[in-house]
Automatic annotation (TrEMBL):
Signal peptide (residue range): 1-15
Official protein name in the record: CUB-like domain-containing protein
Keyword Signal found: yes
UniProt entry tagged with the keyword Transferase: no
Cross-referenced Pfam families: CUB_2 (PF02408)
Keyword annotations from UniProtKB, A to Z: Signal
A cellular component term, taken from the record's GO annotations: membrane raft
Alphabetical GO biological process terms: innate immune response
Domain CUB-like stretches: 16-138
InterPro entries: CUB-like_dom
Amino acid sequence: MLLILFLLTITGCSALNCVQIQPAQIYNGNIVYIPGGNGSLQLLPANYNCTYQILPPVNYKTGLYAKVILKNGLRGANDFIIVTDVDGKTTTMNNRTGIGGFPFDYLVFPGAQFLIQVTTKSVLMNSMFSITVEYHNAPIGPTSTLKTGSEMNYFEMATIRDGRNVFSSRTFTDKDSVRVQHSKLIDYTAMFAYATTPVIPEYVDMKTFFSGFTEVLEVVNFNSTGIIMQDLVITSDTCNAYVVDGPPNNSSKVIMDISNATMPKSFDLKYFSVINLDCDFVFGVKSYDN
Ligand SMILES: *[C@@H]1O[C@H](CO)[C@@H](O)[C@H](O)[C@H]1NC(C)=O
Ligand SMILES: *[C@@H]1O[C@H](CO)[C@@H](O)[C@H](O)[C@H]1NC(C)=O
Ligand SMILES: *[C@@H]1O[C@H](CO)[C@@H](O)[C@H](O)[C@H]1NC(C)=O
Ligand SMILES: *[C@@H]1O[C@H](CO)[C@@H](O)[C@H](O)[C@H]1NC(C)=O
Ligand SMILES: *[C@@H]1O[C@H](CO)[C@@H](O)[C@H](O)[C@H]1NC(C)=O
Ligand SMILES: *[C@@H]1O[C@H](CO)[C@@H](O)[C@H](O)[C@H]1NC(C)=O
Ligand SMILES: *[C@@H]1O[C@H](CO)[C@@H](O)[C@H](O)[C@H]1NC(C)=O
């Protein structure tokens, strides 16, 4: 099971207080403005250094995702903002990037960590910034097995899309290991998830983008049991890809070899994972029609 840590680390604060999001502010529908205000740019003092932490919570039944809007109004040439995205990648902004309060949007999935370091130098340059964090429910299916150590991260796109209660996917990177077969340990480079619906299949394109690239797709039927895989088309000469039961943890068992699979294939399961070690292929997945 994932632990939810509401870590409130107060780091190197000065005049404007480095106030983190409080646990009581983290609930569905809430909007938090940092450092206050209404989402418009706010003035930064000199010598400011604060790392804002956005840690949307998750447990294995429910979670929240965060929509983050960052506005960069830096003016001082030496002032900067460092964004550490959910995949650990950092982006540095300064007074030449995205100036004028142009909003940058990010999505932080349940259980992920997202950091924004805001640093100004000793001279007050009237630099400004604003961070808006919106929390939304991210229903997690009862069998989404977040306890695997490799996080399955879902968020409900409906609230930011068209209002339908449909889950969607998000790609993120991970360094966890997967044991597939023959006691073979694999580091996968990308991982994403789909929730199935009945009737209309969700089409998935899996590709080996570069040598050594491996990816995992987790397919979950949230509402019932039974997933159908159909319309498999393999476009690479060789195909090293598998369907494993459960999440791609080190005790997963291969239940289908993609290279010689026959379609459509019914899985009497709530979820499975597709592991692509070296193959280009497309297929559809849907829930059993009830
Ligand atoms: C936000 O606050 C600023 C003053 O800080 C004000 O000028 C602006 O009109 C406000 N915007 C909205 C949408 O309320
Ligand atoms: C600012 O804070 C970060 C950690 O949040 C720290 O790594 C960095 O050294 C600090 N920089 C300054 C100039 O204090
Ligand atoms: C960024 O800093 C440079 C050097 O001080 C300055 O000339 C420029 O006007 C600044 N840009 C903005 C948008 O403030
Ligand atoms: C792998 O997943 C299965 C099925 O969810 C679970 O029973 C098992 O404990 C997991 N093993 C590890 C090592 O996480
Ligand atoms: C699950 O079932 C509910 C109620 O029937 C429905 O509103 C929702 O769209 C379904 N979700 C999926 C992912 O099929
Ligand atoms: C499987 O994963 C678990 C949890 O991460 C770890 O404790 C265990 O040593 C792993 N087993 C093997 C055979 O790698
Ligand atoms: C697919 O190929 C693997 C080995 O390449 C073999 O073990 C398996 O039986 C084959 N499955 C089918 C359905 O032909």
